[in-house]
Design a protein that fits this description.
globular; 129 residues; Nucleotidyltransferase, domain 5; 22% helix; single chain; alpha/beta; ribosomal protein; 26% strand
């Protein structure tokens, strides 16, 4: 009984000149995602994907390297302008945006989407060292 092998085709994403960039910057890592206007992912990268480990992942240099990798793929696909949505308190926020601009993708708008608690959850108890 021969089993058929499934061949999966790569999903084709329509790349326009305009798009969106999402920079998620936590205390541990930074993730940059470039999408078209519909929200379909064109390219993504992170500090961990670029080979940084441990505390080196949350540095401006790691964010710069990840943003350059992500922007190169999207620029080759045809993306030219992006709106940047930044989320999180990490260190590499500004350097990621600056690198996107230096790689030839024009940043038209920067929007901060960092969630702020309206006195929601009770904070964890104070650390005793």
């Amino acid at each position: 009984m021969a089993q058929k092998s499934k061949t999966s085709r790569k999903r084709v994403v329509k790349v326009e000149a305009n798009g969106m960039a999402f920079v998620h910057s936590s205390f541990n890592n930074i993730i940059i995602t470039l999408t078209n206007t519909d929200g379909q992912v064109v390219s993504w990268s992170s500090a961990g994907k670029m080979g940084f480990k441990g505390s080196k992942k949350n540095t401006p240099y790691a964010a710069q390297v990840a943003a350059a990798d992500c922007a190169k793929i999207a620029r080759d696909a045809g993306m030219r302008k992006v709106k940047v949505y930044v989320k999180g308190p990490g260190a590499g926020r500004e350097s990621a945006i600056r690198t996107l601009h230096n790689e030839g993708i024009v940043v038209t708008e920067i929007i901060d989407k960092t969630p702020l608690p309206h006195n929601g959850c009770r904070p964890p108890k104070r650390r005793r060292v």
